[in-house]
Each structure stands twice: as C-alpha cells, then as structure tokens.
Amino acid sequence: MELSALKDLVILFGLALITVIAFRKLQLPSIIGFLATGILAGPSLLGLIGSTHEVEQMAEVGIVLLLFTIGIEFSLTELMRIRKLVFWGGGAQLLLTIAAVAVAAVLFGLAPGAAVFVGFLVALSSTAILMKLLMDAGEMDTPHGKTVLGILIFQDLCVVPLMLLTPFLAGAGGGVSGLFISLVKAAGVVAVAHLGARHAIPWIFGQVVKVKSRELFILSIIFVGFGTAWLTNLAGLSLALGAFIAGLAISESEYSHQALGDIIPFRDAFISLFFISVGMLLDVHIFLRHPLYVALLILAIIVLKGVIAAASVLILGIPARIAVLAGLGLAQIGEFSFILAQSGLRYQLLTPERYQLFLAASVATMALTPFCLQWAPQFADRIMRWLPRALVRGQGGLIERERKMRLSDHVIVVGYGLNGRNLTKVLKGHKIHYVIVEANPYTVSTERKRGVPIVFGDAARAEVLEQAHLARARILVIAISDAAASRRVAAVARQLNPNLHIIVRTRYLLEMEPLYALGVNEVIPEELETSVEIFARVLKRYLVPHDQVEASIAAVRSDSYQMLRSASRRHSHAVGITGFLSGAEIGTFTVEAGAPLADQPLSRGLLRNRSGATLIAVRRGEEVAPNPEPSWQLRAGDVALLLGTPGQLAVAGGLFEAPPAGP
C-alpha cells in the first residue's frame, strides 16, 4: 500500500471518529456521521484527500462484505414464516414505488429507461439505519417493526436483480437475450453455490475447525466470500451477487453464527469507507445552487414513499396505525441505492448533476429518519381520527371471520409473542378462559385455524377491546414490547372498565411511572426480572441451598418492588390490599399429600409460628372458606391464600410441600 493511501485512511478514520461522536450525541445514526465525514474531507469542502481512487476500491470491499453478511443472516425458514408480508407487502411497495416514480420522472422529461432506474433508486430503503434504530428503541418485535422488517427483506432480495437489470435499462445488456443469459448465469451460480453449501463449504470449515485456529477460520471465511465474488465477476456478474450467494451458502451450514460474528468487524470498518466515499462524491454546492429544488425533492421522496409503503401494508388488512408507522419508517433512501446510483452513473442513466441532486436528497432523508420514527406515533394518532373505521381496525377476511365469543371473568392477552404464548399456555392448563388480541393478520389467521380464541385488530381501539368483551373481563395483560402502544392500550382499557385489573410487561424501570399514572395495577419490568434470574442461576451454580436462593430472590424483589409500589400508590387506582400494606404480598399455595401442614388443624399454629404468614382463606373444591376457624384442618389439594412479606411467604411455601422421598 502506498504511503499516500495510508495517510488518506488515517485522515478519514480520524475525522470520522470526531464526526460520528458528534452525530451520536445528537441522536443521529452513525451512517449520517460517515456521510458527513466524506463531505467534509471531499473536494467540495476541505479537500483533505488527494485521490479518491484507493478509497473507492476499499469501499468496494465494504459493499462485498455487506452483501456477504446479509447472505449469512438470511434465513429461508424466517422468510417462509412471514412470506405473505415479505412477498405481498414488499412486492407491492417496491413495484408501486418504481411505477409512481417512473411516471413522474417521464412527466419531467426523463427517458423511460432512466425514469425506471430512478424508480429503482427511490424504492429501496435503508436496512442499516432502520434496523439499528428499531433495535435501539426495542421495537423489533412490535407489529410495525416486524412489518418494516418484512418489506426490507424483500428489498434486500431485489437488490441483486435490480443490479442485473441496470445495464439493460441503458441498452448495454444485449436486450432480452442478454438479460436471459445473465439470468441463466445467475441461476447457474446459485446452483453451484447450493451444491457448495451442501458439500464443499461444510468440508472446508470442518477441516479448518479441526485445526482449532481462529485466525485460520477467519481466513477461510474471507476466502469463501471473496473467492465466490471473484468467480461471479469472471462470469460477467456483479461482485455483490457473488458475495450474497457465498453468504447464503454459509448460512446453510452449522458455522454460520461464528462466521457472522468474526466477519462483522471487518464489514463495519470497510462499509464505513463506502459511506465516506459517497459523502466525498457529494458536491455541497448543490444545496446552494438549487435549494428549493432539493427541498421539494426531499419532501416528495418522504411523502411518496411513506404513502405507498403505508398503502402496501393496508392492502394486507393490517390496521392503519401500524401501516402509518411502517410507512414513515421506510420513507428514506437506502444504502443500496448508492451502489445502484454509481452503476447508473457509469451507464449514463444519471447525469452528474442529477447524481448530485440524488445524493443530496438521499443524505437528507437518511438524516431525517430518526425524527420520522420519533414523530410517527403522534402523527399516526392524529391521522386515525380522519380515517374510516374499517381502515383503522384492519379489513379483509380476518374481520369477516371474527367469531362471536361469549366470555366473562376472563383474561384478555394483548400480543401473541413469546410472553403471550407462554401465558395462554398456562391459562389453558388451569382452565382459565382467555382471549387474545393480535394485530398481525397472519398470526391471527394461523392461530384461528388451530382453534385459539383470538381477535384481530389494534388493541388501542375501543371497538377491538369491546370485541374481546373487556367490560366482563377480570384481567387485561398487555404483553407487547412497544411502550407507547402499551400506554395507549392501558388508557383506553381503564376508561372502558374502571374495575379491570391491568398488568403490563415493559422493558425498563423508567417506563413504569407513566403506566401507573394511566391506571395500570401492576407493571412487570424485564430489566428487574432478568437481573433476578441471572443472580439466581449464579447462586445455583455455586450450590447455594435452594431456600437461601429463594430468600435472596424474595429480598431483592421486596426491595425493588417496594420502590415500585411507592410509585403505584401515588395514583388513585392502587386501591387493592397490597396498595395499603407496605411490603406485604398475597400468595396461594396448594397443600401436597404428606406436607407438614397436611391433616393438621390450624389451632396448632404451625403456619403462623414457623413462617409468620397469615392465612386469609382456603379453597376446597368449589367451596371457599374465608378466615377459617382454628379447628379447620387442611387437606391435600386445598388451596390456601396467605398474606405476608416475600420472606414469610417463601418460608410458608415449604410447609405446603411434601418432603423429598428418601434414597
């Protein structure tokens, strides 16, 4: 490597450190910082880099690694699980956007081929930015997060076909016959990659793993990725296609997770150079020469993409609020559009002036993405007031197939993710009636065929909760990961049923106070419960006795939830007995045959003397005996309701259990 190239790298990475730190403090994605680094270092501003050729070559390595890791992460199983959302939603978004942009571009005087190519550029959204923002916000598992993911998967799948089509739009691909030849070549390479995934890749990695050398394993990953990309380039196809196919081959092997973990640092380093190189190509004077044109172009992209993406989601029958959130999330230009744009510039589908306008608008839409996601919930709430009820709730066959359910004293579970599934499984085992409210139409369709009592719609809508018979329900459990949506559901539910007991799952302790203020009775923070589970497992690995582990758990929960209860008592809905008794809890225990309390009268005082807990009531079959007499004798199968501190209840629990059988 020449000294000048090394100097350029030092300048770019040093400037990137300062720029990205500044942008992160402004809550902007790192990608925007890399683009800004390139703009600052480029010839249009500071001119710190003498030659951009070496930087562009290393940026090409970043593109190869990006496609390579996408191939590794790609899961055919996950694709089939959300195939309707991916192919129907993603397909509608991509095709409608390309068609709308192409028509508009033709009206503004572009040739048909160039107009369609501009549609390619606008149709793609930023996988890198959106995935980072959604993961940071904890919204990957929300309905709109899954919707965005499905559409992005389809876009990523279409990147390679769009790259193959680009030369033909410019008339440089040999027409239909040339396109057919390219597709045959691509199919042949895919077939070879599939055979490699079944035979060659496992053998290669198997030999490497036997050596037990991490360095050799990393070298083998790079060899497979870059070697496949080079071979596809020799066949007349793009490097990016070869890298994606190589990643796809590795994804089918048992070494995919380790390979991904080892290659990601290289990808991140080189892909940053790609974004820096894009920024270096941007002429900032374009903003000064055409300020109004650039501003209108930015606005047109956001509005057009947002509306079409939302419409594509609505077509699937998904509620309008989720569609609006997904639409605003997808309303930016993607990183793969930069790759296509450079190809379009090479094939003269874009003039240098239009290329600069595109770069300016793209960088701006990327920078606005965090703000679009931040403002999306408020914007969606306002839009809902003006939309027809059918769109707000969702429409199509799912609504028409709703069955009338006669329920009372039941549990309503909002969200059918992991938490919802585990809860309903336990409720079913205890013969407690429940109904699920879920906004994913495909989940609803699948589960309804299995006989699961499930209602389709947005639980923040009163009519959806009424369909679940909220007025006659005993408990509402909100088991979704979207904090803002949880607050809306809780507020509507409390307004409709003041006597309802509401339990909410949330991620962080900071999200608890607003939920209590809205009338939630209990909030379960994952942050606290995860920490409890971690230290419990640590203690068990050190063979700490079970009763001491339970006592430690009780102490931590007592201290932590005491603080949380103080927050709940500040609000008027906390009128239950635990709202008045500081540090007290209510627990139920089943008397096992042979337990110390079995067949013993309460007058002996065994429960009170050993644990300090107070017996409130006993249920025997269908009979409930509140405040039982001292002569009452507990039997196996009785369910006792106790009041006490967490420590007292932990000790009392042992009195209801049969002693372990001897050897």
What's the structural blueprint in terms of helices and strands?
Elements: H1 3-25, H2 30-41, H3 53-73, H4 76-81, H5 83-107, H6 112-123, H7 127-136, H8 143-169, H9 175-211, H10 214-234, H11 239-251, H12 256-281, H13 285-289, H14 291-315, H15 320-329, H16 335-346, H17 352-384, H18 389-393, H19 397-400, E1 411-414, H20 418-429, E2 434-438, H21 441-449, E3 454-456, H22 462-467, E4 475-478, H23 483-496, E5 501-506, H24 512-517, E6 522-525, H25 526-541, H26 546-568, H27 577-580, E7 585-590, H28 606-611, E8 614-620, E9 623-626, E10 639-644, H29 646-655
Parallel strand pairs: 1-2, 1-4, 2-3, 4-5, 5-6
Antiparallel strand pairs: 7-10, 8-9, 8-10
Helix pairs in contact: 1-2, 2-12, 3-11, 3-12, 5-6, 5-8, 5-14, 6-8, 6-16, 7-8, 8-15, 8-16, 9-10, 9-11, 10-11, 14-15, 14-17, 15-17, 16-17, 25-26, 26-29
Summing up helix and strand content along with how strands pair, one would put the structural category as alpha/beta
Number of E strands: 10
How much helix, percentage-wise, in residues? 55-70%
Radius of gyration: 30 Å
The portion of residues forming beta strands comes to 5-15%
Unreliable stretches covering 5 or more consecutive residues: 396-403, 569-576
The biggest beta sheet is recorded as: 6 strands, parallel
Q: Give the overall form.
A: elongated
Which whole number gives the mean pLDDT? 79
Architecture (CATH level 2) name of the largest domain: Up-down Bundle
Taking strands numbered 1, 2, ... along the chain, how are they ordered across the largest sheet? 3-2-1-4-5-6
